[in-house]
Amino acid sequence: MNPSANTHAALIVVDVQPDFMPGGPLACHEGDAIVPGIDALLRQRLFRHVVATQDWHPHGHASFASSHPGHAPFEQITLHGQPQTLWPDHCVQGTPGAELHPGIDWSSLDALIRKGSDPNVDSYSGFRENHGPHGQRPSTGLAGWLRERGVEDVVVCGLARDVCVLWTAQDAIDLGFRVRFLWDLCRPVTPDSDRATRETLQQLGVTIA
Ligand code: VGL
Ligand code: ZN
């Protein structure tokens, strides 16, 4: 990548946390394979801004299957009138599995967005919660943080390719940013979803890099 092209670009590293790694409760397929590459990318200091998101749920979060007796992880239910996949308990606030992955040098990070803290609402995107009153999804503040710094271009990577990175890219487009998606520095929860993810991104006008 050409560093001068990134003067005003922000890198958004989505949910690179131990609970999403193989052996964790919500493992992404080969999730650990992206850790060295993201670490190397951050050490190059190519981006004017580096933002990380951190999935950060309270105990008993509404997205946990364990909060819905009679339901199992990966089942879909209706929550707030929309489909909600139920997940294994993951990224519980303050637990080791919720930390930013220790295999990455995070020292260049200049903002950290914690999401999913509302006990009743899931939050895949780094920009907005999944659901809110009157059809308005509450903002995390990330879009304003970027706009106030003159950022128009964002580059996304992390976990999961088919969930939180995808939703972050979709919202970024929707909110007026140009988006590059670092495909090889992402891994999915469901590998079978890759083709659909790619098609969705292409239709949105996201550059797949
Ligand atoms: C994620 C499912 C539930 C993700 C977070 O980071 O992609 N997926 N919570
Ligand atoms: Zn989550």
Any descriptors?
two-stranded antiparallel ribbon; 209 residues; 4 helices; Rossmann fold; binds zinc ion; binds pyrazine-2-carboxylic acid; six-stranded parallel β-sheet; alpha/beta
Task: Describe the 3D structure.
The strands form two sheets. The protein has a six-stranded parallel β-sheet with strand order 5-2-1-6-7-8. The longest helix is centred in the last third of the chain and has 11 residues, at 164-174. The mean pLDDT is 96. It has four helices and eight strands; from the N terminus they run E-H-E-E-E-E-H-E-H-E-H-E. It has one domain: Isochorismatase-like (Rossmann fold). The chain is of the alpha/beta class and 209 residues long. Bound molecules: pyrazine-2-carboxylic acid (VGL) and zinc ion. Pyrazine-2-carboxylic acid binds next to loops.
Can you summarize this structure?
With 209 residues, the chain is of the alpha/beta class. The chain has a single domain (6-57, 89-208), classed as 3-Layer(aba) Sandwich (Rossmann fold).
Low-confidence stretches: none
- Hetero compounds: pyrazine-2-carboxylic acid, zinc ion
How would a crystallographer describe the biggest sheet?
A: 6 strands, parallel
Query: What do the pLDDT scores average to?
Result: 96
Biggest sheet strand order reads 5-2-1-6-7-8
The CATH level-2 architecture is identified as: 3-Layer(aba) Sandwich
Strand content: 15-25%
Indicate the structural class. Answer: alpha/beta
CATH class call: Alpha Beta
Order of helices and strands: EHEEEEHEHEHE
Shape summary:
globular
Topology-level CATH name: Rossmann fold
